[in-house]
Amino acid sequence: MKRIFLTFCSLVLLLSLSGCRDRDASPQPEEPASSSEAGSGEASASAGEITVTAGGREFSAVLCENAAAGELLEMLPLTLNMSELNGNEKYFYLDRGFTGEPVTPSSIRAGDIMIFGSDCLVLFYEDFTTSYSYTPIGRIENPEGLAEALGDGNVQVSFSSGSVN
């Protein structure tokens, strides 16, 4: 009986340890690097421009060069009823997730457009410090008047391809 118990314990221990392998140990395909550092998450005019409309005002935004920004661009035009949070952001949970490349910025700037988690589109209208992780999508080039256009409560925000005329 003691021998069966020891064999059983050894088997359980062996199976438990096999689930603890290092996920990074398997070889990962290398993505080709580009001179523009496509995965950097920095907004760039070559990545695409969109128009963000709220409160009757239009704002030009530049998208980041990453997969999530490309996925958002494919969904446009998009009109969302965004909810207020913390007096500094509007957010909306989409029906689909985005390819995540999260970063933990030390601060958020007014005009930043990001994904929280995998499916929450966030438009920030105030500067603040943060410890949360986000996937950068883009940035409104000139956020002056953005807070006023978004207002205090929930708001309808439209995202469309192209820049403000």
Automatic annotation (TrEMBL):
Residues 1-21 form the signal peptide. Residues 52-159 form the Cyclophilin-like domain. It holds the Pfam family Cyclophil_like2. Residues 23-47 are annotated as: Disordered. Residues 26-47 have a biased composition (Low complexity). InterPro entries: Cyclophilin-like, Cyclophilin-like_dom_sf. It comes from the Bacteria. This is Cyclophilin-like domain-containing protein. The lineage of its organism: Bacteria, Bacillati, Bacillota, Clostridia, Eubacteriales.
